[in-house]
Amino acid sequence: MQIGFNLPVSGPMAAPATMAKVAQLGESLGFSYLTLTDHIALPDTSTPGYPYSESGAFYSPDPGHRMEQLTATAWVAAKTAKIRLVLAVLVVPYRPAVATSKMLTTIDVLSDGRLTVGIGAGWLKPELEALSHTPFAERGAVTDEYIDAFRAIWTQERPVFHGKYTDIEGLLVDPKPVQKPHPPIWVGGETGPSMRRAARVGDAWYPIGTNSQHMLDTRPRLEAGIARMRKLTEAAGRDPSAMGIVYRIKRHGYEAPPASDGNRRLFTGSIQTTIDDIKALEAMGVTAMDFDFEGRDAAKAMDEMHQFKDQVLGNL
Predict the structure, then answer these.
(1) pLDDT class for 59, splitting at 50, 70, 90?
(2) In angstroms, rounded to a whole number, what is the distance separating the alpha carbons of residues 247 and 151?
(3) pLDDT value of position 250
C-alpha cells in the first residue's frame, strides 16, 4: 500500500518556502508520493459548485490563489530527491496535446522518472471555455484523443498521430520519458465515461469518494465501484487484476453522520477508524491512497503530518 499526501498549491499555504518545507517533510516522513491539483482560472468560488463536497464549497481556503500545476511540479521535483510526483489530476483539455506531452516528458526526465500522470476531463465549464480551443461538451473525446497522442509521442521514435483535435507526423519530439513505456497513468473520475477511460488506458483508477453524484464514501459503495471497474477492465480486453485502484481522500478524522446508504463514511471518526479503513481498503484491492493536510496554518498542517506518521502509518 502506497500512502501519499496532497501538496498545497492553492490558498494561504501556496508559497514557495511553505511548499518546499511540506514537500521535503513528506519525503522525510516516508510518504510514497505527493499530489498536485490543477486549476488555472477559477470563477467566483463563493458560489457553490464544487462537485466533491456536500455543500458545493471547496475544502481549501482561497482556492483561487493557485500555482500552475505543471510548473509547480517541475519546481517541486528540484526540491525533492525520491518522492513520487502525482498530478491529481491534470485536466487534459486545458493544454494542447503536443506541448503537454513535452512538458510531462520534461518533468519525468528532470525528476529522474518520478512522475505519475493523473488525468481527468474536467468539470468546470467557465474555466475550460477560457483555456481550451475545444468545446466543453467534447471534453471527454478530447481527453481520450490527447491521451492517445501522448502515448504515441512518448513511445514512437518518429511519432505519427492523426486525430480530430491533434495531427502530428514528421516531427522529432525528443527526449522520451525515463519511465518505459511511459509514466504511469492514473485516470480520475467516477462517472461511466471516466471509468471506461480508466479501463482502456489506465494503470490505475483514481476516484474521489465524495463526488455528490457518484458517491464512493462507504465501504459497500467503494467495493461495488471497484467490482464495476474490474468488469469494465476485463471488457476492454485487459487483465482486471493488473488495474491499480487509488483512492483520494479529501477529509479524514472528523465526526460525521452516516452516509445516505446508512453506513459510516470512510475515514470519519477516530484514529483507529482511519487505520481500520486503510486496512479494509487494502483488502478490497486498493493499491494507494492519499490524504489532505491543507489549511490556513502551515505549522498546524505539518504537525498533523507528523501525527499521521506516528499514529496511523506507524500502526499499519
Answers:
(1) low
(2) 24
(3) 87
3-state SS, one letter per residue, for the chain: CEEEEECCCEHHHCCHHHHHHHHHHHHHHCCCEEEECCCCCCCCCCCCCCCCCCCCCCCCCCCCCECCHHHHHHHHHHHCCCCEEEEEEEEHHHCCHHHHHHHHHHHHHHCCCCEEEEEECCCCHHHHHHHCCCCHHHHHHHHHHHHHHHHHHHHCCCCCEECCCCEECCCCCCCCCCCCCCCCEEEECCCHHHHHHHHHHCCEEECECCCCCCCCCCHHHHHHHHHHHHHHHHHCCCCHHHCEEEEECCCCCECCCCCCCCCCCCCECCHHHHHHHHHHHHHHCCCEEEEECCCCCHHHHHHHHHHHHHHCHHHC
CATH 3.40.190.10 fits 2-315, yes or no: no
CA 235/CA 44 separation, integer angstroms = 41
- Is a pLDDT exceeding 70 seen at residue 96? yes
| CA–CA separation, 72 and 269 (whole Å) | 33
User: Residue 90's beta-bridge partner residues?
Assistant: 119
pLDDT digits (tens, 9 = 90+) for 15-52: 999 999 999 999 999 999 999 999 999 887 666 566 76
**Residues 243, 202: Cα–Cα separation, whole Å:** 7
Please give the mean pLDDT across all residues of the chain.
Answer: 94
As a whole-number percent, the residues of the chain with pLDDT over 70 amount to 95
- Which sign does the torsion angle of CA 131, 56, 13, 209 carry? negative
What's the CA dihedral at 104, 107, 110, 115 to 10 degrees? -100
Residues in the chain: 316
**Residues paired with residue 204 on neighbouring β-strands, in sequence order:** 186, 244
Determine the straight-line distance between the first and last CA of the chain, rounded to whole angstroms: 10
**Cα gap 217→299, rounded to integer Å:** 29
Q: Are strands 33-36 and 84-91 parallel, antiparallel or unpaired?
A: parallel
